[in-house]
Amino acid sequence: QVQLVESGGGLVQPGGSLRLSCAASGSIFNYAMGWLRQAPGKQRELVAEITSGGYITYVDSVKGRFTISRDTAKNTVTLQMNSLKPEDTAVYYCHALDARRRSYWGQGTQVTVSS
After folding, report:
1. How far apart are CA 47 and CA 68, in angstroms?
2. What is the pLDDT of residues 7-43, one digit of tens each?
3. Tens digit of pLDDT for each residue in 45-104?
4. Rounded-to-integer distance, Cα 57 and Cα 76, Å
5. 105 near 38, Cβ under 8 Å?
6. Which residues pair with 112 in a beta bridge?
């Protein structure tokens, strides 16, 4: 079981960048890690995921702009977000899935893209 704490959200202008970080309380070596987001009035969607084996997937809307990475030595996962658009505005959640497919969630961090 791990606890997840996100950081790095905030307000940025369109075209800007933010870097989200997720710190886990324990080893994430055998976890699939991901970032999901939820905008007002919309369902939560998977933005990016990286498996324990390093396989990465992105939702089409962020391909080429967002990069997910993991550091198993530091038990952290980051989401580098470039060329941000107003439609990227949402609460971003860090997610972990263990080998038994149990889910763990962070508290969420707000990302607002606005001029």
Report:
1. 9
2. 999 999 999 999 999 999 999 999 999 999 999 999 9
3. 999 999 999 999 999 999 999 999 999 999 999 999 999 999 999 999 999 999 999 999
4. 18
5. no
6. 11
Residue with tokens 């976890």: 31
**52 token code pair:** 């324990």
- Which tokens is 66 given? 């967002």
Query: DSSP string spanning the chain?
Result: ---EEEE--EEE-TT--EEEEEEESS--TT-EEEEEEE-TTS--EEEEEE-TT--EEE-GGGTTTEEEEEETTTTEEEEEE-S--GGG-EEEEEEEE-TT--EEE---EEEEE--
- CA 9: distance to chain centroid? 11
